[in-house]
Amino acid sequence: MLDVPGLASIERACFGREEADDLLAAELSRGWARVRVAELPGDEVAAFLDGWVVADEFEVHFVATRPERQRRGLAAMLLDFALDEVFAEGARSSMLEVRRDNAAAQGLYRSRGFEVVAERRRYYDDGEDALVMRCSLEGSLLAARRAVYGDR
Ligand SMILES: CC(C)(COP(=O)(O)OP(=O)(O)OC[C@H]1O[C@@H](n2cnc3c(N)ncnc32)[C@H](O)[C@@H]1OP(=O)(O)O)[C@@H](O)C(=O)NCCC(=O)NCCS
Question: FRET label pair with 31: which of 49, 59, 62, 98, CA 20 to 30 Å apart?
Fold first, then answer.
């Protein structure tokens, strides 16, 4: 059972959205949404990832780590887990949009092998541009990890 209020509290802490509960509840109510959660001892929900598999591509929609738990590898772990999981199910690429000024998220995605493939001008409601980033799940970084840890 997903702790929707717990996930919404992370989203609110990260994005400051008042409507976080409604937005997230709507997303999580979609049966095809893939949500993966990192819990710390004491049942604290520390980070989560959400995305959809569309054909052979995994679209990452949200990744967020509670501010006081950031820079401990939680988002990287969740992303690696999800990418390995969808690869095992047949996905061969992953893509996402990220705000141009979100250096932390871009750093995370680059660290997992994503590259900028396009820009979407004034994509967000506040007029900020989006960068479209994509990662081949057959690329060298993931392939190298699978060679070490094996396919799941
Ligand atoms: C982006 C975010 C999810 C990263 O979560 P995290 O758990 O702190 O990330 P990790 O500790 O797993 O970091 C993995 C790598 O990402 C990169 N990274 C993470 N935070 C970074 C930052 N602030 N600046 C630059 N690179 C960063 C680094 O390469 C890092 O590896 P390193 O710590 O060995 O250098 C987190 O900053 C966050 O929740 N931000 C607000 C929500 C958000 O903007 N989400 C993305 C859009 S939906």
Answer: 98
CA distance 147 to 145: 5
And the tokens for 16? 């400051």
Ligand 1 mutation pick, 24, 60, 70, 112, max ligand atoms within 8 A of CB? 70
Q: How far is the CA of 105 from the centre of ligand 1 (A)?
A: 5
Nearest CA to ligand 1 atom 38: 64
Domains and CATH numbers, the chain: 4-149 (3.40.630.30)
Interval between CA 139 and ligand 1 midpoint (Å): 21
Instruction: Kindly report whether the global pTM for this prediction surpasses the value 0.70.
Output: yes
Query: Which stretches of the chain score pLDDT less than 50?
Result: none
